[in-house]
Amino acid sequence: MLTTEKAREKLEKILNEKEYRVYDKASKGLFAEWWDKAKQWIADKLAGLFPSIESADNAASSILIAVIIVVIVLLALAVFFLIRHYKRERILRNKKPLQSLKDINWTYHEHLKEAEKLETAADYSGATRHLFLALLLFFHDKGWLEARKWKTNWEYYEELRKENKHRAGQFFHLAHFFDEVTYGEREAFQEEYRQFQSVVLSLLSEVNKEGGGNVAQG
């Protein structure tokens, strides 16, 4: 019995020595130390907010685990949506607005008439497409860009920047809406189309006034 008691006292002495405490702290690792501090911090906050809680440390552990899970899920969702958006933007950027001979052989007046016809039929996605093509071919007629079947809207934007950066910026936003409606499986609704139409027609009218002409819509 005496031997057992002495062995216990010796063990306690070893455990209390500075060298052992340093070793024990290092063996836990940085993550374990951070985890303990985080739990203690939350436990202290819980104890301050809810003094009646008997085991704030256990509650802190549960809350910390829940917070970490939520953060991981949110980060995963953010990465997922960023990757999807990046891939979608790459696909849209490589699309070519002039898909057929009719698209490029029609005058911008004919595209405006077709847009009006589709608008009357409540086909706002189709009307958006022809209204944008009218703008594109109008800029071609003005010599600000060269409309070709193999070109993308990004290439047209770069051409317009050399001519007029402000106008190129307007074109960029219009082209983005056009791409989403035409290739991105986004349906254009009446209110959106009206806003798009207003910007396009204002731009056509503004440029025509500078050149001394009028936009024909019918």
What this model shows, in words?
By secondary structure, the protein is mostly helical. The chain has 9 helices and no strands. It has helices at residues 2-16, 18-49, 56-93, 101-105, 108-120, 124-142, 153-163, 165-182, 190-211. The longest helix has 38 residues, at 56-93. It starts with a helix and ends in a 7-residue tail after the last helix. The relative contact order is 0.08.
- Number of helices, where a helix is a run of at least 4 consecutive DSSP H or I residues: 9
Q: How would you sum up the global shape?
A: rod-shaped
Structural class: mainly alpha
Computed CA radius of gyration, to the nearest angstrom:
34 Å
- What is the straight-line distance between the termini? 110 Å
Report the portion of residues in β strands.
Answer: under 5%
Helix content: over 70%
Low-pLDDT ranges: 212-218
The pLDDT mean sits at 76
Output the helix-strand order. HHHHHHHHH
